[in-house]
């Protein structure tokens, strides 16, 4: 095993189980250890267990013991099924968003399911997801499971990355290149922007498209030296970045974006593009920040 661990938000829900499956696949390629983490917050547990539970009863040792049994049983069963991987589990006390953010500083990657119960209620659709992805110290992968207990996306599909030339998007490019090379699948590098004014709407569009395509190809050159077998394509278009990336996610195994961008990708993390990807992408979404 090598390097920092892959941290998985786990609460026993079907979606957290799908996140775990994605993390195990990542570990098989990267050799990193996997840690299942259940963030236990009694106030949240009260809402999960029902209105009959007295909120004044805290801490509830029996509830915490049950959570510990769930996590360690899941970790043990997973380790038995994957003897070649290093798999552990733990219960972390505190507010989910804050504790995941703190633990991400020690992790290589944080993997979350699209929905959960207990400590992860609303993790995807509410402010918790925005907080975690905005402030995590490592890349965050959100795994969607629209049907069945398998991660969305195609196992042999390409890795897609949105790039706009900003430093953050180039970090995302590196993340995507490494995943594509590890899995020996194609890489799609996409640059899209929406016209902002007369200059963009003029006859200079074709010239700009050509310039952008050349710049993207040049940004790939160092990576192609590092990974000579890398199968990469560059796509540049005028249009909505979110729409183009969501469309590209169909049949992909991962869509990757940086925490911040410029031009058409401005606000990639905290704005509408990242939100649309997390909500509507048809495969897992990685949000990558510079460490």
Layout of helices and strands:
Blueprint: E1 5-9, H1 14-30, E2 34-40, H2 42-49, H3 61-81, E3 87-93, H4 96-104, E4 107-113, H5 127-135, E5 140-143, E6 159-162, H6 167-183, E7 187-193, H7 198-201, H8 205-226, E8 232-238, H9 241-249, E9 254-258, H10 272-280, E10 285-288
Helix pairs in contact: 4-5, 9-10
In short:
The protein has about 290 residues and is an alpha/beta fold. The protein contains 10 helices and 10 strands. The radius of gyration is 20 Å and the shape is elongated.
Computed over alpha carbons, the radius of gyration is 20 Å
Largest sheet: 10 strands, mixed
What is the structural class?
Answer: alpha/beta
User: How many individual domains?
Assistant: 2
Task: Provide the CATH architecture of the largest domain.
Answer: 3-Layer(aba) Sandwich
The chain-level mean pLDDT equals 82
* Weakly predicted, low-confidence segments: 46-50, 53-57, 121-126, 264-269
Strand-residue proportion: 15-25%
SSE pattern, N- to C-terminal? EHEHHEHEHEEHEHHEHEHE
Q: Per the principal axes of the C-alpha atoms, what is the gross shape?
A: elongated
State the helical fraction: 40-55%
Number of continuous helical runs: 10
Q: Got a strand count?
A: 10
What is the name of the CATH class of the largest domain? Alpha Beta
**Terminus-to-terminus distance:** 22 Å
Might you state the CATH topology name of the largest domain? Rossmann fold
Question: CATH superfamily of the largest domain, called what?
Answer: HUPs
Biggest sheet, strands in spatial order? 3-2-1-4-5-10-9-6-7-8
InterPro entries: Rossmann-like_a/b/a_fold, Universal_stress_UspA, UspA
Domain UspA: 6-144, 158-289
Protein name: Nucleotide-binding universal stress protein, UspA family
Pfam family, one: Usp
């Amino acid at each position: 095993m090598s390097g920092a661990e892959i941290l998985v938000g786990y609460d026993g829900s079907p979606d957290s189980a799908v996140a775990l499956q994605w993390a195990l696949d990542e570990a098989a390629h990267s050799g990193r250890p996997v840690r299942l983490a259940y963030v236990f917050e009694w106030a949240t547990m009260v809402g999960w267990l029902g209105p009959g539970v007295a909120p004044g009863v805290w801490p509830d040792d029996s509830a915490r013991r049950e959570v510990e049994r769930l996590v360690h049983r899941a970790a043990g069963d997973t380790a038995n099924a994957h003897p070649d991987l290093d798999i552990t589990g733990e219960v972390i006390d505190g507010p989910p968003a804050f504790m995941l953010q703190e633990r991400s500083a020690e992790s290589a990657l944080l993997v979350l399911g699209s929905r959960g119960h207990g400590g992860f209620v609303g993790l995807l659709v509410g402010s918790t997801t925005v907080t975690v992805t905005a402030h995590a110290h490592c890349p965050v992968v959100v795994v969607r499971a629209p049907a069945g207990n398998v991660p969305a996306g195609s196992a042999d599909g390409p890795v897609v990355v949105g790039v706009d030339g900003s430093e953050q998007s180039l970090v995302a490019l590196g993340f995507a290149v490494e995943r594509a090379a590890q899995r020996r699948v194609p890489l799609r590098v996409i640059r899209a922007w929406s016209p902002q004014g007369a200059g963009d709407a003029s006859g200079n569009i074709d010239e700009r498209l050509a310039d952008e395509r050349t710049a993207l190809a040049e940004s790939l050159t160092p990576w192609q030296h590092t990974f000579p077998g890398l199968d990469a394509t560059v796509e540049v278009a005028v249009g909505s970045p979110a729409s183009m990336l969501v469309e590209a996610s169909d049949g992909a195994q991962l869509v990757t974006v940086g925490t911040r961008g410029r031009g058409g990708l401005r606000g990639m993390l905290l704005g509408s593009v990242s939100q649309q990807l997390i909500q509507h992408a048809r495969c897992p979404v990685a949000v990558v920040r510079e460490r």
